[in-house]
């Protein structure tokens, strides 16, 4: 059974740092792109960033809103993805989710997030 | 701002059919995927690719794509389908993008 569990959320002051973990099981973690998302109160889902699997060098991409402040990393030996959040702002307050990405198609591509964690609340205040 | 556009809210009578749409230029290059989001719960993938449903998703959910528009149709909407629905694709930089979400009310 595929499982993703986020941890590390909590209350933090503006300007401080926090590291979230996404502990996974039930699949070959190193083969997958892992993404982080967030949903602030009363708003929609927002993609934060992703980290590619080992086949693609574990490279990362980020949303403009967090680029330069947030860093995603992974430990394939432990099947854990991390989200390091620095210089936190009040607007980073949200529930943070991790998810596994799948993809397919040849000429016409598709991507999807088939398994999600339950989320962890980060409050910056 | 999101590069995928969704209507903010849609309503449907119990048992009727509802279509939720998502528009964006990137949908000419990528199929959308669709997620159901209920308060306090993680998003759930309901449709991906051309029209694929993950295991456990009822067959009343279906997807269609044409040009720059993707749609999610619920045929015979149930009370438990009341939720926010988000479309997802990649943008012009091949990064992840979500629509702003559609709040579905089942009357």
Short characterization:
The complex is a heterodimer of chains A (125) and B (107). Chain A is mainly β and 125 residues long. Chain A has strands spanning 3-7, 10-12, 18-25, 33-39, 45-51, 60-62, 70-75, 80-85, 94-104, 109-116, 120-124.
Summarize the structure in words.
The complex is a heterodimer of chains A (125) and B (107). Chain A is an all-beta fold. Chain A is 0% helix and 55% strand. In chain A, strand 9 (94-104) and strand 10 (109-116) form a beta hairpin. By secondary structure, chain B is mainly beta. Chain B has strands at residues 5-6, 9-12, 18-23, 30-31, 33-37, 44-47, 61-66, 69-74, 83-90, 96-98, 102-106. In chain B, the strands form two sheets. In chain B, strands 2, 5, 6, 9, 10 and 11 form a six-stranded mixed beta sheet that branches. Chain B is globular. The N and C termini of chain B lie far apart (31 Å). Chains A and B meet through strand 4, strand 5, strand 9 and strand 10 of A and strand 4, strand 5, strand 9 and strand 10 of B. Strand 10 (109-116) of chain A pairs parallel with strand 4 of chain B, so a sheet runs across the interface.
